[in-house]
Each structure stands twice: as C-alpha cells, then as structure tokens.
Amino acid sequence: xxxxxxxxxxxxxxxxxxxxxxxxxxxxxxxxxxxxxxxxxxxxxxxxxxxxxxxxxxxxxxxxxxxxxxxxxxxxxxxxxxxxxxxxxxxxxxxxxxxxxxxxxxxxxxxxxxxxxxxxxxxxxxxxxxxxxxxxxxxxxxxxxxxxxxxxxxxxxxxxxxxxxxxxxxxxxxxxxxxxxxxxxxxxxxxxxxxxxxxxxxxxxxxxxxxxxxxxxxxxxxxxx
Length: 225
Ligand SMILES: Nc1ncnc2c1ncn2[C@@H]1O[C@H](COP(=O)(O)OP(=O)(O)OP(=O)(O)O)[C@@H](O)[C@H]1O
Ligand SMILES: [Mg+2]
What we know:
globular; 31% helix; alpha/beta; four-stranded antiparallel β-sheet; binds magnesium ion; 28% strand; binds adenosine-5'-triphosphate
C-alpha cells in the first residue's frame, strides 16, 4: 500500500543544510502495524509528514496504492490526505470549543452525509473506543486518555486507508498508555486497520508486524529490541 523508495529530505535554513532522511526505503502492506522508533531529532516526524501527504517536497519516490505521489498540487494532496489518512498526535489536537461530536465530525464535512447518518457514524466510532457516553462533552471535561480516545475516533470515523500515529501515548501515564495501545491493537486485529506508529514504547514489539529504527537519517528494520 505504501512504498517509499530512496527518499531523501533536506531542510534548508539559510546557510545550513540538514540532511534528515537518507535513502529511506520501506513498504507497508495493508493490515500491517508498523512501529517507527529512533532518538529525538532522528527524523521520525519528518517521515510521518511525507507518508501522511503533509509534505510533498522530498527527493525519491512515494507510491501510494501504486500511484506515484509527485508534483501533486496542494488541492490534490489534501484530497488524497482527507480520504486516505487518519492522524493521531501526542497532544490530541482536539478543538476545545467544539464538543466531542463536533470534533469527530470534522473529517466527515465533505462526505455529504445527512445529519442523522453523521450522528450514527460518530457514535459508532465513539463506541469502538469505549466512550459513547461522552458524545456531548467538551475536551476540557475529559481526561488525557479520554481525549486520545476521541482523537482516535476522529481518525477512524471516515474509514481512512491507514492511521498515522505520532507518539500517541507520549502524554499519558503507563496504565492509560496500555489502554490506548490496546485500542490500536483491536482496530488492527479486528478491523484490519493499517497502522503506522511512532513510539518510544518498547512493549510495542508485541503489537507490530514490523519495527523500523531511524538511525542518523537511515531507516533499518530490526528484529531485536
Ligand atoms: N520545518 C523544519 N525546518 C528545519 N528543520 C527542521 C524542520 N522540522 C524538523 N527539522 C529538523 O529535522 C530534524 C528531524 O526532526 P523530526 O521532527 O523529524 O525528529 P523526530 O525524530 O520526530 O524527533 P522527536 O522524537 O523529538 O519528535 C531535527 O534536527 C529538526 O530540528
Ligand atoms: Mg517527532
């Protein structure tokens, strides 16, 4: 599904050039749960931005479902992004003055569903993360773990082709982290949702079909943790 071939990314800030991704090559097949690890500053989020169609400016090739993603206009890139990816971030990225329902509805704005159907699919997404009773609350009325559940519901509500999660448990305690990881695991095993996740959590090895390490801009697959 995702095929990254010899991708190079350099950040240019005036005199300085920072070569962050060096000939990065890997694939993600449908239904996989891929973990990406590596030290702070090693380029994990940079890579996620490319995979998630947020960043179009890199060298090398990105084939998504056999289509070469290159020289896409911003419009075309956001269209591909909207229908293909669900994002989950460390800091939840919920809109505080929107209710839980309104937050989860966001990816559906262009889907043209009736209000009744919209409410149905929002509720279904909330049920799959275990907190349907929170539908009319505001994010400030929720715990960190509940906020991340809402963020996951928002990420899956439009049935994206894959989920990108960048340190989704980074702001949570270890018990809550495990609950959140179990939700990703359930989505992956029961719904066959493809997951690509950046994490520092070494217990991830039990969930992953593949673990990739960023070391000095190079991506290596490892089997020992
Ligand atoms: N927009 C940017 N402009 C210039 N340099 C950047 C930009 N974004 C990231 N960098 C640099 O690129 C390198 C990789 O950053 P990136 O955010 O991908 O690392 P990371 O592996 O996600 O780190 P962390 O674990 O801390 O989140 C860092 O040295 C960072 O300072
Ligand atoms: Mg990062």
